[in-house]
Design goal:
The protein folds into 2 domains: 180 residues, Rossmann fold (3-Layer(aba) Sandwich), CATH 3.40.50; 148 residues, 3-Layer(aba) Sandwich (Rossmann fold), CATH 3.40.50.2000. The chain is 45% helix and 14% strand. Bound molecules: uridine-diphosphate-N-acetylglucosamine. The site of uridine-diphosphate-N-acetylglucosamine (UD1) has 17 residues, from helix 1, helix 5 and helix 11.
């Protein structure tokens, strides 16, 4: 890569953890489609298991990353430092014009800081979201990334307001829509023409009929025994009503063992699933229970009722327009929210503005100076 004679802008597109991969896929595809930019994929290695990483590259039709930093797991400081050290070397040798980071994981923070200190322009996709909960590692990552980024690509109105309040320049804030939804639309089309029967969960899905779909991995939900036991009690009771399909994150699997959490046999624990198989299951669920950020948005886009097992959300549009209900993480709150979700009138849900599959196109228009609001520095 060093010494490459590229024509046009050289951009590094950074991804490290599972939810990043869905966000970079449409940005990468659009860059390939339009030319004028050479887009290099940088995988920090924050997630590394086959089920957490490679399977996504296949499902999302992404090529092998150009650079793999092998950061791996560790405490926040260790993981962030490993990513920073490795990424700095790559930036110094390849001198990109632009670094694009997405979302709010440790890789997002680490690579923004490195790039900015090397005077490289930083674009943050999914900028401006705030949970206002600084006990959440992702909130720190969002705040720090937005403190140093140059261009802010925003998914919903609340992000624009937050960035304005924090004093970011108006001409750098771009309300472009949501690349998660670009990806969802692309994948839905593929899924319809896909051989659904090949999924390992196809038999189970058909046998269960009506079911709930669950994801759970936030430290605030699974790391403390008492909290996790309360959530498990809610899930076991909910499962009496409808069986639950539960692809389990590695952090959660460890914590189930560690705390001795017991789940009813009507909670079907699955390994982490690829993007398409997961979509195949949740799109037809009676309701989704989750603590993921992305699923709150994706369920809103498809009109699937969603119960968020958290005290807050950085994605308030999913509550005001979409299908999302905040449940907190106590048993009674979760069961009440689920009851509401199952009784919801689906005709009242709306898809938020600009969640139309065109976000990646708008991002590149802005970055390459085709959007009159953005002048590209020379
Ligand atoms: C990270 C993100 C979180 C995101 C989540 C999605 C941060 C601060 N957190 O949390 O925002 O919602 O990814 O999954 O960046 N592990 C494996 N295999 C892997 C990756 C992790 O076994 O491929 C295990 C490791 O033991 C690790 C634990 O899972 O200690 C947690 O991984 P880590 O990347 O630290 O955080 P996540 O909980 O995955």
């Amino acid at each position: 890569m060093a010494g490459e004679t590229a024509v046009g802008l050289v951009a590094f597109l950074v991804a490290g953890a599972r939810p990043n991969f869905m966000k970079i896929a449409p940005i990468y595809r659009e860059a390939r489609r339009r030319g004028g930019v050479v887009c290099r994929l940088i995988h920090t290695g924050q997630h590394y298991d086959y089920e957490m990483s490679q399977t996504f590259f296949q499902d999302l039709e992404l090529p092998e990353p150009d650079v793999f930093l092998k950061a791996g797991s560790g405490s926040h400081a260790v993981q962030t430092a490993r990513i920073m050290t490795a990424f700095e070397k790559v930036c110094q040798s390849a001198c990109p014009d632009l670094v694009i980071v997405v979302g709010d994981v440790n890789s997002t923070l680490a690579c923004s800081l490195v790039a900015k200190k090397l005077l490289i322009r930083v674009a943050h996709v999914e900028a401006g979201l705030r949970s206002f909960d600084r006990t959440m590692p992702e909130e720190i990552n969002r705040i720090v990334t937005d403190a140093v980024a140059d261009e802010f690509f925003v998914t919903e109105e609340s992000g624009v307001e937050n960035l304005r309040r924090e004093g970011r320049p108006e001409e750098r804030i771009h309300f472009v829509g949501n690349v998660m939804i670009d990806n969802l639309m692309f994948q839905l089309e593929r899924l319809q023409s896909d051989e659904e029967a090949r999924f390992s969960t196809a038999g189970l899905k058909n046998r269960l009929g009506t079911y709930l779909f669950l994801t759970l991995h936030r430290p605030s939900n699974v790391d403390q025994a008492e909290t996790f036991q309360g959530i498990a009690a809610a899930l076991n009771e909910a499962a009496e009503r409808f069986p639950i399909l539960f692809p389990m994150h590695p952090r959660t699997r460890k914590m189930v063992k560690h705390h001795g959490v017991r789940l009813s046999e009507r909670v079907h624990v699955l390994p982490p699933l690829g993007f398409r198989e997961s979509l195949y299951l949740w799109k037809d669920a009676a309701a989704v229970l989750t603590d993921s950020g992305g699923l709150q948005e994706e369920t809103t886009a498809l009109g699937v009722p969603c119960v968020t097992i958290r005290e807050n959300t950085e994605r308030p549009v999913t509550l005001s327009l979409g299908t999302n209900i905040l449940a907190g993480n106590r048993k009674s709150g979760i069961l009440q929210a689920l009851d509401r979700a199952l009784r919801a009138d689906r005709s009242r849900f709306q898809v938020p503005p600009k969640w139309d599959g065109q976000a990646a196109r708008r991002i590149w228009e802005a970055l390459l100076g085709e959007d009159p609001k953005v002048a590209r520095p020379v």
